Amino acid sequence: MSGKLLSPDELEAALRAIGAERYHNLHPFHRALHDGRLNRAQVQAWALNRYYYQASIPAKDAILLARLPTAELRREWRRRLVDHDGDAPGTGGVARWLKLTDGLGLDRTYVESLEGLLPATRFAVDAYVAFVRDRSILEAIASSLTELFSPTIISERVAGMLRHYDFITPETLAYFQPRLTQAPRDSDFALGYVKEHARTPEQQKAVLDALKFKCGVLWAMLDELEYAYVNPGRIPPGAFRPDAA
């Protein structure tokens, strides 16, 4: 990006172009998951590693919530905590993700222990939480804009997994249905905030870089899954091994 100041609509177009090029719906592992080319153990590995990302989202949002300067902003961001953590035991997105891992035959205690995580999963997710903690509020909010693209990947994922895997049921995939309305609501707010507050070329570049970073986090997670579980013999020490589960 040059030093030219973009209009709000031009900034939105640049953000959407990043998603069109870098969002992880384009990753070969996702395509294999959607197209039914993974076996049960590979789907288990995906769900187990993705759990750490899902469980870290409310922690990330709580960190940002504490940094927000106004009650209006905090009220808006607080909804995300309820969406993921729920407002009672057994509710919310994290609990629904555990129903997915349950349905895939993974022991819940093992999943929650994080003992089987791939190292790159931990590094990528921790880097995202640190980014939200350490960067500007504008960059932290911009990093959430992968939600602009999530309804597409959710629709693909649900339809593809139900079509191709006999061990997947609609109940197993209960996590995804609420996200079809939650993600657009959240991304509409974040996009509006970014378009209003990125007022200099430097701020706009930071916003675009934040979204690139977040796309990289999600891409790196799938890179490691593909390396470890699609290529035999490359599972790192201590990570989930299907034959030992």
UniProtKB/TrEMBL annotation:
Keyword annotations of the record: Oxidoreductase, PQQ biosynthesis
Thiaminase-2/PQQC domain ranges (all copies): 13-223
Keyword presence, Oxidoreductase: yes
GO MF terms held by the record: pyrroloquinoline-quinone synthase activity
EC class: oxidoreductase
InterPro entries reported in the protein's UniProt record: Haem_Oase-like_multi-hlx (IPR016084), PqqC (IPR011845), PqqC-like (IPR039068), Thiaminase-2/PQQC (IPR004305)
Enzyme Commission identifier(s): 1.3.3.11
Any GO BP annotation: pyrroloquinoline quinone biosynthetic process
Pathway annotation: Cofactor biosynthesis; pyrroloquinoline quinone biosynthesis
Pfam families assigned to the protein according to its UniProt record, in alphabetical order: TENA_THI-4
NCBIfam families: PQQ_syn_pqqC (TIGR02111)
Family to which the UniProt record says this protein belongs: Belongs to the PqqC family.
Protein task: Ring cyclization and eight-electron oxidation of 3a-(2-amino-2-carboxyethyl)-4,5-dioxo-4,5,6,7,8,9-hexahydroquinoline-7,9-dicarboxylic-acid to PQQ.
Protein known as: Pyrroloquinoline-quinone synthase
Organism: Komagataeibacter europaeus
Lineage of origin: Bacteria, Pseudomonadati, Pseudomonadota, Alphaproteobacteria, Acetobacterales
Gene name, Swiss-Prot/TrEMBL: pqqC
